[in-house]
Amino acid sequence: MKHYDAVVIGGGSAGLSAAVTLKKQGIENIIVLEKDGETGGILQQCIHNGFGLQTFKEQLSGPAYAERFIDQAAEAGVEVLTDTMVTHIGADKTIEYVNSTEGYAKIQADAIILAVGCYERSRGAVEIPGERPTGIYTAGQAQRYLNIDGYLVGKKVFILGSGDIGLIMARRMTLEGAKVYGVAELMPYSNGLPRNIKQCLEDFGIPLYLSHTVTHIYGHDRLERIEVSAVDEKRKPVPGTEMYFDVDTLLLSVGLIPENHLADEIGVVMNPRTRGPVVDENYMTSVEGIFACGNGLHVHDLVDFVTMEAARAAEGAARWLKNGSSAGRVIRTEAGSNVSYIVPGLLHTDAMPGNVEFFFRVTRPLDAGEIIVRSGEKVLRTLKKKKLMPSEMERVLLTKQQLTGLEDNLTIEVKETE
Amino acid sequence: MYDLVIIGAGITGTMLARKLSAFKLKAVLIDRENDIANEATMANSAIVHTGYDPEEGTLKGLLNVRGARQYEQICRDLHCGYKLTGAYVAACGEEEEKVQDELAERAEKRGIAYEWLSGDEARTHEPNLSKHVTRVLSFPETAVVYPWEVAIACAEVAVNNGTELRLNETVCAIDRTDSGWCVKTDKGEYETKIVINAAGVAADKIYGMVGDHPSFTMTPKKGEYFVIDNDVHYTDHIIYPVPTAKGKGVLAVPTVYGNTLLGPNSERVEDPDERGCTFAGLDYVRENLVKIMRNPPFNKTIRNFAGLRPSSSCSDFIIEEAPDAENFINVASIESPGLASAPAVADYVIEELLKDKLTWDKNPDARMDREAPVVMAKLSEEEKKAKIAENPLYGKIICRCEQISEGEIVDCIRRTCGARSVKGVKKRVRPGMGRCQGGFCEPRVLNILARELNCSPLDVVLDSPASRILEKENR
Q1: DSSP assignment, residue A203?
Q2: Mutate which of A151, A222, A232, A295 to disrupt the B interface (most B C-beta within 10 Å)?
Q3: Reported confidence tier of residue A285, pLDDT bands at 50, 70, 90
Q4: Predicted pLDDT of residue B475
Q5: Is-catalytic flag, B49?
Q6: C-alpha distance from B324 to closest chain A C-alpha (Å)
Q7: Neighbours of A58 (CB within 10 A)
Q8: Which domains does chain A possess?
């Protein structure tokens, strides 16, 4: 069986960053397994600008952003297998994959980095009554048809969900000559980035219907009409508020779900909130030597953070390969009031490798809030912030010194302030 | 001149077509849909009931038991999925236990295996069974299939044996001729000795084309379901409540490929084109399932669907020569347990109704089985390697969720009765059945279809000819 020091599963933004970082850390014998025909992942179909402000201090398109990492990986001599689907991983860190050239193969890794990405929540998962005609697509699907295959999916469009891909597609389809009638969002606030609301909806006069959802689909062959209703505080449709739109296309942008089938099979402990693995400060999962990062760990708002997080996971893997497991006390991180989740979820406070930046999201929009990080009763850090949105990932850094020796679980809460 | 025109390519029509194709008969199978098994056969509970439920003295009772016993062999011959799950009929309290007693009595009389379990015993096997369940009547021989897979395979066998298949053809008129009937569709005319009306929810409309006073009307009943992700292991057995006058109730069904079906409700619909899900219907399923089950995994739903049961004004199957139309045979009202009964329905039609009307020379070239499709997931590592070496497309995974290769997709398009639509591919080899519901693979399947059918991607359809997926080229 072929052996690698580290195997990266997934060659998207997370996987490429992890691979490049592994090489930088002196882990030479590595391979990236990518299921698609090329690396770069979903970035390849995101031809709009806005990637890389954090990483490169400039605005790049998705493919251009991907290109930089593809080049870096090539320069570093990272071995990549494309069109290669991993079918199984073992807790013993064997990996089985299939492709057209080798058929079925099994390799042995010392460390595995899961950089598997996420998938779009489908119509089935959101329960829209009515018929099942053609003309209903996830936003990412329509994006692929348009930007990779070169086909527009329809002319009269409505969008359910104000996720970023939906907003981007509202603009993109408008520019391609389609008429976008509106975006309905179940929640009383948008799930997309404020800049996308501005640039993709407001600038084109596309209405955003907050606290609304699609309540019926009409059309036997092709979508003909949708019913949109307002919802109450319990998110139940309010009778009498129905609006009808005669559209041939409904795009769904109703959430992304980390793809964790491989990790599930070997019993990696998951966080039910993120639907990704629980990881420690080294980004190691509950299975020794298996690491996770990117949208397969938790769904990010910006690719720059994916890149950054994947680099940290690779550093964690490199450390583990050199030094073995962290010993000593383990504490958990706990989401306090107004916080939906925190990554990482576990900390080895006797063996902190360095500072830790915690990623978290708020559960609801807050005009102003105070971020409070505590360990038991002890307040470690407070931070005032304006405009906290569930659509934006929040970050808070704690130093190695602050974290070392902590005994009580670490809580992050956000207190609403005036 | 045809011997037979069969109207309706659902499980009833295809099962009959396959059995008839063993003989030298000229037959044509006509369906208005763009694929085989596109209506009731596509949207039901997928269960091969053993036959303890229908009342004594009914065709349902007679044919269900006989049909169910043929399924395992048929699925083996056709290389179709068949999973012997067993079924639990769960009673909560004495009243419901009395109904169980009646079922057990019928099972005893019909030679159907059953056993009794206390609520607690049953819960050790099925921990998600509600604590309110007091007693379980277990039927170890109940199985599940993919109904459309069986129907497609039957059609394939029939067509390979010489039966003609006409999809996308709507029957507009049926006229009496000297020698039988002339079936007129929107695309052509078929002179035939015999017409078989297996038109499902449209059976009364078809019958109305020949009979002055049709003896039945279709009263379709809608059933709505949840499909649960196959990473949830919810039950091993099919779990039913005790049946009521309304039907078999809301069930939990483990499917052949590891998903769970939760449903259905049963709601009479006036318009047979009204086949979508409703909030009320799905709420009904949610509320009723918890009477016998706990921890319902509705949050892991990957799809909802609704199907129309071809129920009629008659409570039993209607399988007879129309009293006012010689050589016009109704095979109608084949609602539950229609799937389980289908092989015996075909036998009954042949033995009881067609025997004296046709000449029954064996077709010496007929093969009743079909060539096994390549299913990569079922092969050993060595076999997989060999297959991929032979055809690299078997190594190119298109559907991530269900891990289906391009080779398998190409095969299902190229074989007899092959897929002509994205849904057709999904029905045959399952890309799009998984948790992403085609989010990733649909564009790839579309391109494979365009290549294999030698058409533009713009002409690839989801299902019906009018259901094109792409609007226009953008560059």
Answers
A1: G
A2: A151
A3: very high
A4: 67
A5: yes
A6: 35
A7: 11
A8: 1-120+255-325 (3.50.50.60), 122-254 (3.50.50.60), 329-418 (2.60.40)
